[in-house]
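re: ur question from earlier - yeah i can do the single chain one, its not a big deal. heres the input i used so u can compare w yours
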Amino acid sequence: MKNFPADFIKDIFKILMFPGKSLAVKMDKSFASFLEKMEKEIKSGDRQLLFHKYFILAEYIVMFATGFFLGYHSYATRIIIVLLLLLPILALIDTCASKRIYRKLSWNPKYLTSLLWCYDMIYYFIIGSLIATLTRG
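and the output i got, formated as tokens:
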């Protein structure tokens, strides 16, 4: 039997923190296999892919921290609107920038997948700003 409060909180946290990744994997099966291939290459010692993975993690941390800071100072709403308006352009930039690193693993990035990942970054910003707004009091 599930431990109701602990498992429920854990499931909610997973949904809140990783929506874009799960959407991108569900929408693009080749992307899911690419992620598996990337993890295998990292485990075999590929430093360039490991750096790329850490860079992506840093992007998430920066978006969350920036959202938290701007949410605390009541600027987040305007920035969220701008980020959502720029989402198609950010996804196009991500698609073009990702081609070099992904070519190594024989995967061609798709615009829809990049759009979902960019949405995920904005989502982290929104979560950070909501937490800051609620804790500001």
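The chain is about 85% helix and 0% strand. not sure if urs matches, ping me
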